Amino acid sequence: MRNHLIFKRVIHAGLAIAVSVASLLSPSRVDAAEPADTIQIAQLKVYPPVFTITGAREQLQMVVTGVLSDQSLVDLTGKATYAVEPADLASVNDQGLLKPMRDGEGSLRVTHGDVNTIVTFEAENILQRQRVSFDYHTLPVLAQTGCSGGSCHGAPHGKAGFRLSLFGSDRELDRVSLTHQMAGRRINPIEPTKSLLLMKPTGEVAHQGGQRFERDESQYELLRDWIAEGANTDSGGPQCVGIKIYPETGRLLKFPNHTQQLSVIASFDDGSQRDVTHLSKYEVSNPLVAEVNRSGLVQGLDRGESAVIVRFANFIEAPLLTFVRDIEGFTWDEPEEANYIDHHVYAKLRQLQFKPSSLANESTFVRRVFLDTIGLLPTEEELEQYLSDPSPTRREELIDQLLERPEYAKFWAQKWGDLLRVSTKLIGVPSVHKFNRWLEVSVASNQPYDQFAEQILLATGSTRQHPQGNFYRSAADTNDATETAAQVFLGTRIQCAKCHNHPFERWTQGNYYGLSAFFSRLQRSKTNQKDEVLLWSKEDGEVVHPATGQTAKPWVPVAGEIPTQESDRRLAFADWLTAEQNPLFAKIEVNRIWAQLMGQGIVEPFDDFRDSNPPANPELLEALAKDFVASGYDRRHIIRTVLLSHTYQASSDTNPWNEQDRSYFSHYRPRMMTAEQLVDALGYVTNKPEAFFGVPVSTKATWVPAPDLKPHDRAKIGSVEFLKVFGQPERQSACECERSKDVSLGQALELLNGETVNEMITAKTNLVHQGLEAGVDSLDLVKRLYRRALSRDATEEELKVHEDYIQSHQDKAQALEDTCWALLNRNEFLFQH
Amino acid sequence: MIELGKMRFDPSSTFSIFRVLRLIGVTIFLSICLLSFPVMAIELRNSNRSTLNSTQSTDIELFGADLRDAENQPASVWTSFESTVEAIEPESTDRGRVRYRITPVKPIDGIVAVRVYHRDEVSQAMLFYVKDDVNDKLPGEDSNPVSVPSFWDFQTKGLGHHRIPVELMSGRPFVAEVIGDRLGSEIDPILILQNQMGEEVAFADDHPIIGSDPILHYQPSETGVFYLLVRDVEYRGGLRMFLNLGNEPVSGTAFPNALGIDEMRPIDVTPIDYDVMGNPSEETSSNPSKTPVSYSALAVSRSNQVGFTHYSLTGRLVAMFQTEDPVRVEGELSVLPVPGVFCGRLSSGNSEDVVDVFLEKGTRFVVSLLGSRGPLVGHIRLFQNDRRVAEHHWGADPNGRLRYEVPEAGMYRLEIRDYLSRTGPGFEYALHLDHEDVSAILKIADSKKRKKRRNERPHRLAVDAGETLELSVRVDRRGLQGPIRLSAWLDGMPCSSVGEIPADRSDVDFSIRIPESDVPTRLQSMVIRGYSREKADKQRSSGAKDSARVTEIPLDLTEHLSRDHNGLSRYPIGLGGMMLVVSPTQEDTQAEMEQKE
User: Fold this and answer.
1) Nearest CA in chain B to A709
2) Which band of pLDDT confidence, cut at 50, 70 and 90, is reported for residue A35?
3) Which of B187, B188, B194 should we substitute to test contact with A (largest number of A Cβ atoms within 10 Å)?
4) How confident is the model over B364-397, as pLDDT tens digits?
5) What pTM, to 2 d.p., does this model score?
6) CB-CB: which of A438, A445, A696 is closest to B161?
7) How many angstroms from the chain centroid is the CA of residue A754?
8) Which end of chain A is flanked by fewer CB atoms within 10 Å, N or C?
9) A448 — contact with chain B (CB < 8 Å)?
């Protein structure tokens, strides 16, 4: 039987692949819109409309936008024609790059089809010598060409003995590396072109990193001139204060007009502006949707959204671009909206032309909502009660009932336990139970989230009296507390900024130590009482920036530096964090709730908020956050709202118009049950629940306060632990990513012939054996197994297969065990769908 | 012949490597077996009771190891109070279980200690709460509701969980309270009160004043049956505790919470029937907000020993300190005596206490907090003419102290506050003020010279009368210079002893002559102290007016006691000393046996 089922699974897998391949062919993608060459433009807009170019090395990237009659926008930068007046003032290439040739004022006529427009510009100091700036030419070039990237010389230990700071974040380090190390052999001012700094990236001598630029490119020219000028590293002159990207975030591009030239203008503290498009580094957040070249030209690849991360010097911006495409046969059927969630999700789906799936059937819904709210499968009785309920509002009623159940608090407390690292290794067994209890009470009492965060962050005094203070035992020092608080409450993985500026975000090393200044005064003292730590704040104490040696001032994202009078600076941090004006706090929690219910965050990974990781649906995230704040940070309200939405209740079955959607919630995303859910489900289906160490026997896996209550047993080294194989986290990090969602061979083996499953199936006290002993008909037992495992009745076809199999065996118990085994290995059981 | 690589061996050869290896293997195996075999020693692990009656006999069952001697006789019993003890079932052969009937000679109260011993060994102490009318058959979940008030003495069952039906009256305060931590029980209990629907209506965990023993308060709005869940937080079974189900707690706070030896003083006792700041139960319990009612009681020191102890005053169990120094409270004196003990309380509305002390030039002023459990994180600041000259808070170091080298004589101001700026009930404190720093301590270990008896610990010994006891005594000088003379007392009587730690050393073998005795084997307490003569500005005053003052150095047994009493964070007087089983000489024993026959 087992071999037979494995064979069937292989067949099914083959069919699935065939269907997937077929689905790629239909429905066809139709780029119905006219290409830019033929469309009728109502108006042309040129950016920047007015500009002054100062310096011989400066240039200007124009961005030409066509406005269509329906007000939609098309990038025409590479398709327009350009004419400078007077002609000897500047040259413009096909891509709209203007290079001045002398000083003077002039105009640029931009033409596309019958439409044209004129912009003016001024060039000055063009014929004067302009020295290469170390900060704003040399270092950006090294960043743009990838030399100072994290995988090359910007790695913590550099590459091949040459270390640069990541993307030029530490000019002093770069100055020494470039001009002093290797006895200054990296640069050769006498014969600049013989400098290793040029010969390596052009491939003239062996370079493990390959060729980075050609000799005729502007990057080469800048580096060569910098060396020729004596490798000047002075930091004098105007300082950059920010960059501005055009077009701004939110530009929508429709195939086949799916390219967009970017313009990057840097502002300096003397009021001047420079075009740095050619010096900026570009990356896309979603490489499946778009790509970008070194000149800042973005090209769409598929429907969807992608941010373009633009970096110049220490400044980062990430405008979001949306690419849409007409799909043949797509019609919007105006699906019914249950609440504002559907409104925002459907708006996005309509824009991207994904059609939402229909609602899941009742048995699928009940199974899904049980697993999501209380972590358990519905019992046979609960299933029967729900399915026989004629009420038209039974879904709503069920959701309300589930959210009041104690299992809800236990299940969600465990999720928080993962984030807050509730483990015996870090805080000891008694504290694990006490902290877990505190979390459980918080969830059960629906403690407002702002209070929840405050009580954790401001915990003071005995950790026995205030178990939430164990947060500061898991996060056992200032850096750990900073990083954990940032990750849990700010959704920011700021760890990178401890040693260097964040590679993908605007966080700098200074920001890191500014944030840690809030936690630096917190002290942890062991008392004479067992398992007790006293938390208290020193009246003084500062954090010193390791690179600058200066005292770090308390700093928070968005608001910047915060002056604090209190000796315990955590108060100021908590005030800022939980203020309604804080744009991050509410969003992070609603996104976390959303991810836990939908299997994927609106921002994904859901604890990695940054400009370069934009939300899949910003309007939805904004609306949820607004609702969350308006409800008084009511987590249960948000969970209920999500559960009531048709977006949540949608079927996991795709339709031809949404099967390619992975990000916009057009259908429910099936996911494997978590390790704990799976163990509980296996226990329930077989009626042989697993027992856990250090907790009462009736405790479910989804309620266990810590993964390491079990004492370390050397004798069992090497034995496989079911929960660990299925991704139960050790709780050593505050990152949700610690819970592995990967599918592994070990999991397959555990399910096929692992000890846990085998013991449950063969136990003489399980459902099958007890049922047979009580004289229950075999087929009735099969029906019960279906209801327990899949929350539905077995179909006639399925029953026939099982009946034939059981009839063909002398040993009914063995045959039923096989049936149970087969059922437990079905994806329909293993997945939450 | 066995071929092993290129070499050939003859197993029958006496000198073959094969034989040698086998011999080594067998030796290692036997060594491992011997080391891993548990060597039994007298040990008290548990009891069926956590309470004793104050005047009546109490039958108790003790569990442990080696509780009978070689002749299968039950171990003798020592109590920290005067009592008569009778062994029940003396004929039993169970060495892990013995039963006794203990009858106090005089009324007892508070928390008392019991040890067992026989000629070669003495056990660690086990603590009992003195309470009458205690029930010992805890009703099951389906039984009739228990009445309130009632007292229960029981052990947690498997997984440490009990669900007790309780009938509560509308509007009448209900208190559930555990005494376990204070008895050295390893239980870490929580209390949960549920209504008939199984919904939690009140919860209590650690109490800020009394440690991990919880006190649950609830005032029901309706009469009915509720369920009290008593659960060990780690789900362990077999842990003993006392449970009070009543209208007010049996635990209280005392003010002042220190008493001089041989002193008699009125004490305010306040039942802990209100929340104190920081009690997590305030979020889930329904507590009437009321002004705490205090009761006045006249307290007399219970013994001549210095340290922490428990008193029962007006029926409430309170923690007290007995001290040799004069005790003063707020308002009694405008200037505090040094050395002395100052008791205060940071009650609501007053966030800071201020007192004056007169300090002499050249002395070192030392303030220590008598280690009470409680929410207070004492913060002491010393001022001279409004200029802060020293400060210390006990959050940073719970065993630390404020030290100040006094540069000039005069009045100084001492300000006492909670470091976390809290006040309220439970914020009572006792400060010990001194003008020198007695931080040096003595420690003991087994002496190499001494023929060690089976499994004895350095602080629990068995000796023969007339024997010379050899102990290895070490000093942790902590800055103390000079030689240290050692002295010992047995049951309060000075012993003839020889021992002095030279100035350039930190340990010595200390010889104590145990007095001759013909009384039967009995347990006696030993006190060892060290004395050092130092310059006057660094010494403790012994009352002498000359410059040759004496620093008294106590014996610290913490490292030994912590092994004996894993569940205790503080060691009351009854546990604190060295205990010696003193037996008469062999001839005496023979005579004793003949006498018995």
Assistant:
1) B234
2) low
3) B188
4) 899 998 866 678 888 999 999 989 999 998 888 8
5) 0.84
6) A696
7) 34
8) N
9) no
